Amino acid sequence: MPLLGYSYRFYISLAFTLLIILVGATFSSIFYYQTKDIITDLTSNVFGFTVEETALKTSGLFENAESLVSVIASHEITNTTNKAERKPHFNFLLSSFSKTKNITSAYIAFNDGDFYLVRRLPSKNKRSSFFNAPDETRYVIQVSEKNLDTNSGEYRYYDESLSLISVQSDITYGQFDPRTRHWYQMAMARHQPITADPYVFFTTKEIGTTIAQRSPSSRAVIAADISLTKLTQFLTDFKTTENTKVALLTRGAGMIASVDNTINGHLTKLTPNTPIRLPLLDDKVLKDVLMNREKHQQKNSLVEIDSQGQNWLSMVRNIELPNNIQYTLVIAIPTSELLSEATIMLIKSAIWLTTLLVIFLLLTNKLASKMTKSIYYLVKQTNQIRDFNFKRKFDFRSNVKEVNMLGSAMNQMNATITEFIEMNKLLAEEDDFSKLQSVLLDKTINICEAKAGVLYLIDEDESNLLLPQVTMINNKQFKQHTLIPLRINELPEQIQDGVIDQSLVKLDFKDKDYVAFTHNSGLESVISHLEDKIQNLVLVPLFNRQNSLIGCLTLLMDTELNTHHKAFIQAISSNAALSIETRQLIQSQDELFESFIMLLASAIDGKSSYTAEHCKRVPEIMKLLAQAAHTTDTGPYAEFELTKSSKQAIHVAAWLHDCGKITTPEYVIDKATKLETIYDRLHEVRMRFELIKKETELAFCKRELNGEDPIALATGLKKELKILDEEFLLVAACNQGDIVMDDWTTNQLNKIAKRKWTRTLNDRVGLSHLELARKLRSGTTPNLPVQESLLADKEEHKILRDEGDTSDSYHKLGFNMKQPELLYNRGELYSLMVKRGTLNEEERYKINEHIIQSSLMMDKLNFPKHLKNVPEIACGHHEKMDGSGYPKGLTADEMSPLAKMMAIADIFEALTSDDRPYKKPNTLSQSLEIMSRMRDQKHIDAELFDLFVENGVYKEYAVKYLDEKQIDSIQPEKFLSEKGKIHYFNIASRYTS
Fold this sequence. Notes:
The protein is α+β, with helices and mostly antiparallel strands. It has four domains: 49-337, PAS domain (Beta-Lactamase, 2-Layer Sandwich), CATH 3.30.450; 430-591, GAF domain (Beta-Lactamase); 612-671 and 844-992, Hypothetical protein af1432; 685-812, no CATH class. It contains 33 helices and 25 strands.
């Protein structure tokens, strides 16, 4: 039945909303930019007037100074020649100077070096800071006069009425010579008044300039200092906003005035030794303004620039002053501050526009609610699909045709996604590859509505052969089948073309290829078990990401294959191929990882024939003990759970727990006696020569002694030889690892070691360079023959460590093993003095160091998350519960249960092993007795050892791996802890009651 309804083409609310936004935004933008232009132009005009006014005020300062200089220059004081003639005119200087404003000082410099300066002291600070003047002082005349023999200087202090208050001498001031000053030299060189470049006054630390003029008689130069601090007040007229930047500069970019305290901060830092010069402009924004000077010259208004991440409106203007003086005014205003009012008006417009838009939306929403009800319902259903909620279907009927069409399509999409998700979930949860194949085929048959199916995979050894893996009929696995492997080159041509084109192949039951394929593949037996008649056989080749054929899906269907089913099957086949490839890769990586583990363990076991089965046996004990902890329902391990991940971690850790032994020298691992080592057999050859020479000497001695009593000689010789035999037997016994060295034995060894034998051959020839270097450490070569001790600890026996081989590197990694000073000590007496076993301190450390190497090796392996605890499990089997173990000295609380199990497994295997050269294998009772003592000493976990005994882990292992002679009668309760005994008897009472 066709879907009814009308087309939904026009949305009124959207159209009007866009219209209001467009119109409102247009008017607001026009208003904002017009306001911006008005404010900018107005500011430019105001600044223009202010610049002219500033120029006039500045010119006034200079004109006042020029007038004062001109008046003094025309006065008769300039024609005087000595001090007596000049002093009467001091009142003239004071009177003329007091009538001026904004002039810091005025002075006359005569060509004979005399100098007279009148200065205003308006503030108490200046009076006290610079001249130590009396409080009532308002003016001071500084006098510096040059005499024939000496120079003199004085300060003359005057009050407000120009009356002299006091005179203070200052000899140092008399040394001042004005003729060396630049203003004096410039004025003398010109007829017209000169204006010096602005500089910092030494006395007042103010910025100012000097106007000077030569007198008509050229006997003197008259000058006046103008303080330019007044200009800072002029510049405040330009500060239109809070962060406006204004500066007045000289031609050399020296800063005369600014609206901030930049100059004052610079001047306060001046010291007496600081050069008196103007501070340079250091404001980055104003520097950027000057960089754009050309734009300001081209445009007689504010110019926009970007500086320091902000937009600025800037202006650069030149101020022309008398005497060809030119200053540069630089202004920068933050655009955001200048246009703040315009921005506020724009925001208000946006608020009004938003309010109008909200009101209109409320009205249009009410009108369109009925028209959009079906759309909202459809959106709700879409959101459910987005949230992976596929339980509800779209069953709403709308007056809009397109909505109904979309709802129908969504229902189909809902069903398809649901089936795909369920299939992917099942495939992701299944770890077993064979089960995954069954799940994959079963879900594909259900989704495609087929009756049966077969999954084929490419043979790994023969890429042309497809092997049947699993067959499903009516959701059940069909095991009683006689399917035949398929050779691709023998398949019907239509199927071979599909494999080449990577496309689906459909065979109708009427096609001859269908009959031939079902017969040759054995599918006839599958079809015979189906009740419905098969209409189509669909074969879908499966390809991996490298476009290599990995298998094919064969589906038997009782309906015609339409376009929808065909596309669906092809999509599912791609997903199936990816799942199969992924699982095959995971399986192959697991197998490769397992082979590396076996390779390393085999290398360790193969390194020593004495521990050839250790890496193989420890995993067996470890797994038995872990299973016992898993099954117990009491005690501290009642909550212990043996998961699939922990089983894999146990397997890997147990096989790799001694991987560090790959770095341990073989002779240390296999050392059966105390004196056994690897050495140069030249020593044996030399000893044989020594013996031959001795025998030759003895033969001559016997001939010479024929005249003596042979009976007495024989008796003495026999006695001496017996003593030597007994001493050798003692040395040989001490060489065994099972003897305990007591004080008597130690004293006897020291006595035997003092026996001497004569060496007549050089023992430093024919050696390797390393052994020769060790020989040379003992000093010079002794003259032959030489007496040697029977047993000795020589310098050459000490094998030194490399410079970088220190314990610091291990300690930084948390290992607490104490490192011996020497790498090896092969001293004969030192080795024989070992208290227990065959290994001395250095060799014991080298053996124990294997656990550090194991940890370092495994730290370099990038274990997956579920195997991250493998290094901790594998490398903790030498730790002890009381923290006295190695390599890190962990306590029971710091060790995981699996690490504690590894310690027990490693110890039990070592105790019962029959391939150790330095000991005999222990029986079960002996091994359990030793381990029970270790439990009492808190070397192994007590609860785990109880589980080990209670659950008969030792017995199950012994039956499989130990010799019958080692399996003796065991009373389990004898080896349990007190808690273990109570638990053991409670369990026993359950079975006997």
